[in-house]
Amino acid sequence: SVSAMAKQAPSFDEADLKVAAELRDQALNSSLDYEIVESLTTEVGPRMAGTPGDAAAVKWGVAKLKELGFDKVWTEPVTFTTWKRGVEMAEVIAPYPQPLVITALGFSVATPEDGLSAEIIQFDDLDALKNAPEGIAEGKIVFIKNRMERARDGSGYGPAVAARGQGASQAAAKGAVGILIRSIGTDSDRMAHTGMMRYDEGIKKIPAAALSAPDADLLENMIRRGKPVTVKMTIGAKQGGEYTSHNVIGEVTGSEKPEEYVIIGAHLDSWDLGTGALDDGAGIGITTAAAKLILGLPERPKRSIRVIMFANEEQGLVGGKAYAEAHKDHIKNIITAAESDFGAGKIWRIDSKVKPEAIPAVKQMAEVMEPLGISYGNNQAGGGPDLIPLRGKGISVFSLRQDGTDYFDYHHTPNDTLDKIDPEALRQNTAAYVIFAYLSAQMNGDFGTGFHQK
Amino acid sequence: SVSAMAKQAPSFDEADLKVAAELRDQALNSSLDYEIVESLTTEVGPRMAGTPGDAAAVKWGVAKLKELGFDKVWTEPVTFTTWKRGVEMAEVIAPYPQPLVITALGFSVATPEDGLSAEIIQFDDLDALKNAPEGIAEGKIVFIKNRMERARDGSGYGPAVAARGQGASQAAAKGAVGILIRSIGTDSDRMAHTGMMRYDEGIKKIPAAALSAPDADLLENMIRRGKPVTVKMTIGAKQGGEYTSHNVIGEVTGSEKPEEYVIIGAHLDSWDLGTGALDDGAGIGITTAAAKLILGLPERPKRSIRVIMFANEEQGLVGGKAYAEAHKDHIKNIITAAESDFGAGKIWRIDSKVKPEAIPAVKQMAEVMEPLGISYGNNQAGGGPDLIPLRGKGISVFSLRQDGTDYFDYHHTPNDTLDKIDPEALRQNTAAYVIFAYLSAQMNGDFGTGFHQK
Ligand SMILES: [Zn+2]
Ligand SMILES: [Zn+2]
Ligand SMILES: [Zn+2]
Ligand SMILES: [Zn+2]
Question: Where is the Peptidase M28 domain (chains A, B) (predicted)?
Fold first, then answer.
């Protein structure tokens, strides 16, 4: 019946919408989010999975959540194989000797200790390499020169990053002894962008590195002159042993249905080159500060809110997978979830992945965000990388989409540092997250579950 | 008498002003300037004084000037003591261990091979260090945190750079064992800016390096927490032997008074970190392309024009000093001179240092530049760093002042690469230089000589 459907349709009490608006305005007047990122980047800095920085970050996360007065703070183990960056150098040997700036891609194997010298063979992009004749790169170093395009939504990343992930095995399949890609980034700084790559089974593992944009330009300019270009690359990276890090979790425990909870989170690990301010210190600051504002209310929300600082997102969403596995028997307790992992630009849109009957409620939530410049988008949210494993188990998710126009200027480079964060934009993010978290914890009804993933 | 004065007042023939305007428009339609910088940065790249890149640059310069058809091409020796950059690393040891990005300052001594660890003592600027009590930095590493201000005319450089030049000896005088300065630059990229420093006689030589801006921020943030901050720095730099490089000179030989000549020039050397596109490949491209346009005229100008590619500007104006010394007996042959050494931004003003009677002629010259957005400034031109020694011998000079708003974002860093040059702005520079060089070679009368330097 119509009345039964109405009963099931999720909604928010007027009083809760009012509190959400107040929390939003408090967020806009608080610098706690920035203080948290400043603390993480200053007191911990780089925190690549499996390094001492990783351990320091876990310790920092637990201490910070306790210091902020979360009702419960705990960790859950996350185990993975580590990778260690070693020396990384490259230079043009001939015809125009000069140094090149590179960085090894995550999980690259090493070159021989005294380097690998070979002629360069250039490809426009990964497809050109895939479509090239067998053996074309025999004994050579493949250079893929494709450029990532700048976009607010980061949509240039997907097409470009395939060269990073798959380039090495595709190159090896054509006989190459090494691969250099133009960095997956939108800047023209002389810094190379790291990030994960993977070797296909049964294909020779060859060393893989990214050139900074100016160095990729340089190689192109040399190659255009028509003489063979010989490059020497030296990579000292190696796989390490098993390591157990931890997801760090802080809970605002609900007053009515404490077992039901909303997840807001970010990943605590970073790459090693920068201090991980944008990726993903910003997300840690935003979500932790949002929950802290809710802790400041006179009473706890009806449901719980969990801030999850995921371990080792960078090298394979390992923390996200571990959380989904550890909580697989209680997936229904997760009301909904959103991860902040796209830097510190302002949020401009909120997308959902909820049951159709819940969309009117999402739009009500979006209205509270409207003064922040945020409008409702669509019902095809992804929710964030560490939520992929939980999404696979059917949870509803939200994407609070940030302006990522500049994100890939700094992404996975030494330039990912605190000065790149605009405190005002960060506050706007926190304001949106506190609305999302508080209203989701207070809502009448639910966002649904059992969504299929594409 | 009035008529005698009028006779002596320099002037330009109408026909010459017309040719100058034509040359200007040709320059705006030529990409030769950019092609020259592209060639230098691609085929030579970094060319720090005394390195193989220096030798390659001299070879390149001679070949390029010959290829372009200069009437005479020759080199003149320039001898100096070299400096070699070695390993350069730093890290915070306590209380928050993490790496720091540094670069050694030119002519810094090394630390012990396994590094130098000491507590940091922070000063606001060089004056604060100078005014501090005796012995205040005993056994410590001094950190000077002053920031350079951005300005179109680069006026923030002078006040800030004193910390780089004099910081080490001032710190050593207070007992310090090392010094770190915030990079002299206007960017917030995680790249340190190198550049010369000097040790005072009779004071202990301590290792000196610059921190990137984000790393200087990081140190400040750590220090603000109040606990002692210990840094380890490792510098492997050392002084090398004597080396003889060369000024490379190309001449457009005058048709009437070939022994009289106008100098346009730039420095051929660069620091080692970038490819020296802005500093000073741009100047090489601008001045060489300007002279080449004059070579393309149906007849040679009355006087000669010399393009001088100065050796080793960076480590003490050595090429400029050598030229002044070698030509000291024929200073009067130098009609006037201008060096391009401030990047590739558009020229917005022309200043002169000429006899007062010549100022109306300079204003006529400036009128030809007006369509380029250039106006006459004043009669207090400096002329450029490599012209300082010639200025000391009384020559007239011109400063074609470039927009340097962004210059110190890249100055002396790995980021000084070709992509930072806007080809259109470069052409505007060439257009101004060709007007200056041609009209000066054609003028009736002279700009005067015997100017005293402040
Ligand atoms: Zn991330
Ligand atoms: Zn990342
Ligand atoms: Zn210079
Ligand atoms: Zn310089």
Answer: 247-431
